[in-house]
Amino acid sequence: MKKIYYLFFAFLSVTISSANNNDSTEIVTGKKNPKTLISIPLAGNAYSSKHLDGSRTITNKGIENWTNSDEYFTTYFRVSKPGTFQINIEESVIIEGKSELEFSINNISKKVKLDASSKKKAIVVGSWKIDKEGYVAIVIKGINKTAKNFPSISRLAISSNDFDGTIAYVPNNEGSFYHWGRRGPSVHLNYQVPETVNAEWYYNELTVPVGEDKIGSYYMANGFGEGYFGIQVNSAKERRVLFSVWSPFTTDDPKSIPESHKIKLLKKGEKVTTGEFGNEGSGGQSYLKYNWITGNTYKFLLKGTPQGNNSTTYTAYFFAPEIGQWQLIASFNRPQTNTYLKRFHSFLENFIPEQGDFSRMVLFNNQWYCDDKGNWKELNTAKFSVDNTAKQGYRMDYSGGLNSNGFYLKNGGFYNDYSVPGATFARPVTNNKPNIDFSKLP
Which of 13, 96, 222, 341 could bond 302 through an S-S bridge, CB–CB 3.0 to 4.6 Å? Predict the structure, then answer.
């Protein structure tokens, strides 16, 4: 989970001119100066129908290397109110030979022909009336071509003479937001635990509903101040239980961590792989390849104990109902640290940008902590929060709160409803205290 911080903007205002963008844009409209004019970079807002292979055809320059007519692309933006919008292909388009493309919104299609003479001007695709607030999906298909490739399209210009609201989209690649925006917003539940508590144990239950196990999803159950513990969908054939602890040394390169700040492995469970991780902070990582099942409820238990020598040991245990017993994942010692478990949270994220147009959901229930005196306390309140992609107003397909199964988190897929960040939710107490004999844990 990337730790990045920027100024908060609830929505992105888009009543701007093309002079604010790197590429100039010629717009053909009923007025010289439309009320709304934006330039949408496809690099941060488009998805290939091939998904996991889409990194070849959607690059930081937009749609490139497009040869297959079976592959199509969908670009998304969200409007705050109804309006009529004209779509233009910006003049940065690269064309080989002649080709014909089809653009559609809400199953209303318009075709456009392109050839070498189209390179030096914006190409008008057409206008669509959008009758409600929410996400708009522009589907781009290749009909025919005379050259090897379909056109390379960098940006689409969206203009309107009657719309004066706001539009949510990823406007540029500052802060690598083509990557983060296409991944979609991450969402969190922050469980309310008094800071004065010496919480030694942290227990949570997690269920991924049937159909919500999209590749690239990380369902994180037991997040704490120094790390995280949950389950992932890594590929069509592989799933993992993942437990990681950040180093106190701030870097994205684990090789640069001095020995005095390295996370040290104390023990690990059977068939568990351990090592170091980087790129999003650095530290110690462990994972168990385990094909967990949607609809089943999995239990997570984390221990955090200060050792009295300015270090803290963190140990993670996983309970799968298919196996029927607690399994050790790993135990790490973190130097330069003297704390019990703090900042209890759960989160949901997508770690594959090509999968950001799929929605995913996870359920959490029956959260507890146990203090250093052996006293259990149920946690039934959580505060909903979002990451910087959502805070900037670039993506608004995020939600979290309560349903009949307890707390839930949902993100991705460009759905229209969203939850207000900062809201606090309280689930009914279960009084179902974990029945765990700590002395018998592996």
Answer: 222
With a threshold of 0.85, does the pTM exceed it?
Answer: yes
- 92 confidence band (pLDDT: 50, 70, 90): confident
From residue 217, how far is each of 212, 285, 289, 360, 364 by CA, in Å? Answer: 9, 17, 15, 7, 15
Q: Which two tokens stand for residue 274?
A: 């351990």
Q: How confident is the model at residue 147 (pLDDT cuts 50, 70, 90)?
A: very high
* Token digits of residue 168: 């949510």
Confidence of residue 10 (pLDDT cuts 50, 70, 90): very low
Question: What domain range includes position 314?
Answer: 184-440
Pair 189, 177 in one domain? no
Non-local (6+) Cβ contacts of 35 within 8 A are: 15, 160, 161, 162, 163, 164
In a domain, 226, yes or no: yes
| Final residue in a domain of this structure, among 181, 209, 224 | 181
Whether 145 and 53 map to the same domain: the answer is yes
Write a three-state SS string for 144-208: EECCCCCCEECEEEEEECCCCCCEECCCCCCCCHHHHHHHCCCEEEEECCCCCCCEEEEEEEEEC
pLDDT digits (tens, 9 = 90+) for 234-243: 999 999 999 9
